[in-house]
Amino acid sequence: MELLRFATAGSVDDGKSTLIGRLLYDSKAIFEDQLEAVERVSTARGDDYTDLALLTDGLRAEREQGITIDVAYRYFATPARKFIIADTPGHVQYTRNMVTGNSTADLTMVLVDARKGIVEQTRRHAFLASLLRVPHLLICVNKMDLVSYDQAVFDRIREEFTAFASRLDVSDMTFIPISALEGDNVVTRSINMPWYEGASLLHHLETVYIASDRNLIDPRFPVQWVIRPQSSERRDYRGYAGRVAGGVFRPGDEVMVLPSGLTTKVAGIDSFEGPLDEAFPPMSVTIRLEDELDISRGDMICRPNNKPFVGQDLDAMVCWMTERPLQVGDFMALKHTTRWVRAVVKDINYRLDVNTLHRDEAATALGLNDVGRVSLRVTQPLFYDSYRRNRTTGSLILATEDTNLTAGAGMLLGPD
């Protein structure tokens, strides 16, 4: 069954957690004891209704403050699809958590409060979703019940958001008017908005086309582990385990191993279920090669005539996620696919204002939640693609060397 990963986005109190709770409740994806626990907490807080947001807001601080702080992952399935939901916070202080939740999403669900319209954080999250190359953007105009289900309100927000999104790199965008609290247009079509002729939220999630979103053109296989069983009956087995990052691999394909540049052919592809005729993203498999080559973790298996970029000087759009600013000359630990290297910041080309999209070329540092273009120099060559072409081989993580704290996420740009 096909899997769809989607994440929420939007400003504080736009109803993201309530919407996810309503979606789980109306699709009968929660257990009775979970619902009873939520009802008890709602009653203890003095609410006169069952607060479905509590299904995802599990931290004590979240329930006390009524806001989402951490990314909450929930899983459910319908006869059409399986889903992984990342409910992310809307507060600007936790923008880094929003980036984390959306970095692996197939679809970003941006909520807009029908009473407030598009606010600064709405624009910020929409821009970050486009920067992260999330293929599908779903704008849910929430709390339509509080504006008497007025079509004019929905149309005004749709026009304003469309004008802003014209400056972003968004390929697919859909608008749905909803009420998360009342359930309008969440699982079933609402009788309160007969003027809306589109699908319900769940129907859109079940039918949005994602098969072509992954890169099936450029074969990429970062080696994660070399498998050499020690048992006597399988001592001659040698395989290379990892997750396919791009393209399609089949037995008999001619491949090249980087950085050595040596070529061989695929002898076979194994999985937990047994041998496979082909492997494609995001399958985790073991590839066997016809020749015994010197291959280790961090090497890349590709095609001889379709190689990634190889280099030590990198340019990336970096989302900075820690309070200590990123400055020129800083040394960082950098993780790219399955390889760790050391990196130094050569230059901060500009800081991007995520609200106006203005480039501040005078910036000398990136602070918490800032986004900017950064030039890096790494100690060993990396095998990469531009993030626009491949979200796996085009992404990186920056960590502090002293504490090993994840400090930034980067989207690589191709060589100029």
How far is it from the N-terminal to the C-terminal residue, by CA?
Answer: 41 Å
Could you estimate the helical fraction of the residues in percent?
10-25%
Mean pLDDT: 87
Give the second-level CATH assignment, the architecture of the largest domain: 3-Layer(aba) Sandwich
CATH class of the largest domain: Alpha Beta
Element pattern in H and E? EHHHEEHEHEHEHEEEEEEEEEEEEEEEEE
Could you give a short account of the major beta sheet? 8 strands, antiparallel
Structural class: alpha+beta
Total strands: the figure is 23
Stated plainly, the CATH topology of the largest domain is called: Rossmann fold
Inertia-based shape = globular
Low-confidence segments, given as residue ranges, are: 59-69
**Regarding quaternary structure, how should these chains be classified?**
single chain
Any idea how many domains?
Answer: 3
What do you see in this structure?
It is a single chain. The chain is of the alpha+beta class. The protein is 17% helix and 34% strand. The protein has seven helices and 23 strands. Strands 7, 8, 9, 10, 11, 12, 13 and 14 form an eight-stranded antiparallel β-sheet that branches. It has a six-stranded mixed β-sheet with strand order 2-3-1-4-5-6, with helices on both faces. A six-stranded antiparallel barrel has the order 15-21-18-17-22-23. Strand 10 and strand 11 form a beta hairpin.
